[in-house]
Design brief:
- This protein is an alpha/beta fold and 225 residues long.
- The chain has a single domain, classed as Uracil-DNA Glycosylase, subunit E, CATH 3.40.470.10.
- 42% of the residues lie in helices and 13% in strands.
- The chain contains 8 helices and 6 strands.
- It is globular and about 40 Å long.
- It binds uracil and iron/sulfur cluster (SF4).
- The site of uracil has 13 residues, from helix 3.
């Protein structure tokens, strides 16, 4: 599907290109492009749908109400927000927060794909239907709906990387609905659990003498020991 793409070779060229991007009509109404943020050594990538009003204003992903919930739940599980990498399927805000159109998702795909290639995440968490559909398409896998797919781990081959994909709800859906919030929290606990096993694998690698920094995204929490 995307094997003939020319990806951005480094973060700097990716950042420079996305800032002046006009590949789809969303560039006209944006205040700021929201490429993503977090650790470039992260093992975990969280993928949302598109920037909302606050994100467009600040040029940062997940900093509005839904973002605060996401950040709070991550931190409550001992996962520092800045130790994961957070981005969206499309990098500019769709007017009125409508769902991004198919052609916008397609036009913007080069950036998400480049981010995946540069970061090489071992875990991708998809937040909501748009992100789930997109990441599953990149993994050549069937997507149905977030409620059917959520809460499980899918081993997908994405751009020649083997990735554990964990689909969950969009945090905006969990904001005002206690039942959905419980499901969202359960899924994020699963993310945390899978992170622990990734850390073990990385530790194994390190013992074989490969150099890579690790563990910085897991803060020990008292209920673990
Ligand atoms: N919703 C998203 O999908 N992404 C954001 O960055 C903020 C809200
Ligand atoms: Fe470019 Fe993506 Fe913004 Fe469209 S949404 S203008 S493709 S960065």
């Amino acid at each position: 599907m995307s094997s003939d793409r020319s990806y951005f070779a480094d973060w700097q060229s990716l950042e420079e290109a996305v800032k002046r991007c006009a590949r789809c009509a969303l560039y006209k109404s944006r205040k700021n492009v929201v490429l993503g943020e977090g650790s470039r050594n992260a093992h975990v990538m969280l993928v949302g749908e598109a920037p909302g009003a606050t994100e467009d204003e600040m040029g940062r992903p997940f900093v509005g109400a839904a973002g605060r919930l996401l950040t709070m739940i991550l931190e409550s599980l001992g996962v520092k927000r800045e130790s994961v990498y957070i981005t969206n399927v499309v990098k500019c805000r769709p007017p009125g927060n409508r769902e991004p159109k198919e052609e916008e998702v397609e036009a913007c795909s080069i950036y998400l794909e480049s981010q995946i290639i540069l970061l090489k995440p071992q875990i991708i968490v998809t937040l909501g239907n748009v992100a789930g559909r997109k990441i599953f398409a990149l993994g050549n896998n069937q997507w149905s709906s977030v409620m059917k797919m959520r809460g499980k781990i899918y081993k997908l081959n994405i751009l020649s990387l083997s990735v554990s994909v964990i689909p969950t709800l969009h945090p905006a859906a969990a904001l005002y609905n206690p039942q959905l919030r419980t499901l969202f929290e359960e899924d994020m606990k699963l993310v945390r659990k899978v992170m622990e096993s990734v850390v073990k694998e990385v530790t194994g690698e390190l013992q074989k003498g490969k150099s890579r920094t690790l563990l910085d995204y897991l803060k020990p929490s008292s209920d673990d020991r």
